[in-house]
Specification:
By secondary structure, this protein is of the alpha/beta class. It is built from 13 helices and 6 strands.
């Protein structure tokens, strides 16, 4: 039995409470006042072009304009020719505030030469501690699901291996959903990751991954259950690399964490995996 205060702190950390709050209560149901945008002038024309989302979420973009940070991400990603270079570029990129509150960067796990690459949402508490994607209870379910169709992240055989990553490489505080601004800044690195690894199939686990990579604003219930051809969202992000032998096929499905809270959807997730199994067997 440790010190009571230390035990209380550890309890909060284990439950995802990792950001301080003030002593004054905040009414989060109150209607927020609309932001007052400065008038457009010769000195702020560029900032006026920044998406409203980026202006309203400064915590997601710590310095410089959104457009500048996005271009920095694209330039940093396009400079990478190998996965190791990409890992270091993501580590060095300072455009995302979530980097400052995370313990470890979570890059990838599994066999980078696997035919199947899984992309999730963002690291959770377990992933943040270990620096690997999908290692908590959701990751254990994901491993069991793919084991059922003969795929495993630890398998050295590329035909039966998995390669796993996320849209965000840093854990958002409290396991919150990534903001649109964070996703936009992370996407060039995700797409460069795909362009370097060159999987034949992409499995997008959850709505965040599916909407981001497919560039479609539809619920995951509408996106799942069918195959798509992969097209880059970021123009030219992979043009300088050897081309794909064929455009990767994309399958969107439910995130394992969603299946824990909504087990009735496990049947549809299993149908998605059977579709993937049939596709990789041809």
């Amino acid at each position: 039995m440790g010190h009571p205060l230390a035990d209380a702190l550890q309890w909060h950390i284990d439950n995802g409470v990792d950001v301080p709050v003030g002593d004054t209560p905040i009414n989060r149901t109150a209607k927020a006042e609309p932001p007052i945008n400065p008038p457009v002038s010769a000195n702020n024309t560029h900032d006026a072009m920044i998406p409203a989302l980026a202006r309203s979420a400064p915590a997601s973009v710590p310095s410089g304009s959104f457009n500048t940070q996005k271009q920095n991400a694209i330039d940093a990603a396009r400079a990478c020719q190998t996965l190791e270079q990409l890992r270091e570029a993501i580590r060095a990129y300072d455009g995302l505030d979530v980097k400052r509150s995370a313990t470890n960067m979570v890059f990838a796990d599994g066999n980078p030469e696997a035919r199947v690459m899984v992309i999730g949402e963002a690291p959770g508490a377990d992933e943040d501690r270990q620096g690997l994607p999908f290692v908590g209870v959701s990751g254990q379910l994901l491993d069991k699901m793919f084991d059922c169709i003969g795929l495993n992240r630890a398998n050295p055989d590329t035909k039966h291996a998995l390669y796993i990553s996320n849209i965000l490489n840093w854990r958002p505080p409290g396991n919150r959903t990534p903001t649109d601004a964070e996703i936009a800044l992370a996407l060039p690195f995700v797409e460069r990751h795909i362009a370097i690894a060159k999987p034949q199939f992409l499995v997008l686990a959850g709505a965040v991954a599916a909407k981001s990579v497919l560039n479609m604003d539809q619920p995951i219930s509408k996106l799942r259950g069918k195959m798509y051809d992969y097209n880059f969202v970021t123009p030219g992000i992979g043009d300088d690399l050897p081309p794909f032998a064929a455009a990767p096929k994309i399958l969107a499905t439910y995130h394992p964490s969603f299946l824990f809270s909504t087990p009735v959807q496990k049947r549809k997730a299993w149908q998605d995996l059977l579709m993937l199994q049939a596709a990789i067997s041809t």
